[in-house]
Amino acid sequence: MIRKLLIGLAATLGLTGAANASLPVGAKAPGFTTTGALAGKPFKFDLASALKRGPVVLYFYPKAFTKGCTLEARAFSESMDAFRKAGAQVIGLSADDLGTLKRFSVEECRNAFPVAMASKKIIRDYQVGLPVVNKLTPMSNRTTYVIDPRGRIVMAHSDMDWSAHVKNALAAVQALKR
Which among 43, 84, 97, 128 is placed 20 to 30 Å from 137, CA to CA? Predict the structure, then answer.
């Protein structure tokens, strides 16, 4: 009985299967500035400044230290050499607080890339809101965007299953180099 209730809740919240990212390929990525952590230290991120250095991979995740988010962070950290070789920066975004992000950046991101706070506005602008159980804690779904240096979305992948996000983002970034 409890298992059926949990499966029903997961389906209601969109925690199973694939979903389409709301911002389409070709759309202009909304600009933003936020705070986060890199290797446990405070980090400021400005999308416009980052794009001057090359493509940016924005990956939204629901909650640090949960199974899927931990596995996704580790997978991105293991692939950072390939992302750097392709000239791309990776940043993870969630509604977590700065203290949580500092720990997550060290323990699960392995100091390899920054994670930052996704404000309600960022979540809304990128159309990645997860239906909320607790109205006091807005969360994002699991969506990855690759943004080219002109600020255009060239890849959008939205799926609560973390396993294809890194592969799809890396392929999109590598395609930009061709």
Answer: 43
Q: Establish if 3 belongs to a structural domain.
A: no
Range(s) of the domain holding residue 105: 20-177
- Confidence at residue 110, expressed as pLDDT on a 0 to 100 scale: 97
* Phi/psi of residue 77, nearest 5 degrees: -60, -40
User: Strand 143-147's sheet: what is its strand order?
Assistant: 18-19, 153-159, 143-147, 56-60, 89-94, 115-117, 33-38, 41-46
The residue that leads in pLDDT, 6 or 149, is 149
Cα separation, 157 vs 147, in Å, equals: 12
Could you give the count of Cα atoms lying within 13 Å of 29 in the half-sphere of its Cβ? 25
Asked whether residue 116 is assigned to any structural domain, the reply reads: yes
The total number of structural domains in the chain stands at 1
Per-residue pLDDT reduced to its tens digit, 72-112? 999 999 999 999 999 999 999 999 999 999 999 999 999 99
The DSSP output letter for 163 is G
DSSP 8-68: HHHHHTT-SSEE--SSPTTSBPPP-EEEEEETTEEEEEEHHHHHTTS-EEEEE-S-TTSHH
Neighbours of 29 (CB within 10 A): 22
CATH of the domain at 91: 3.40.30.10
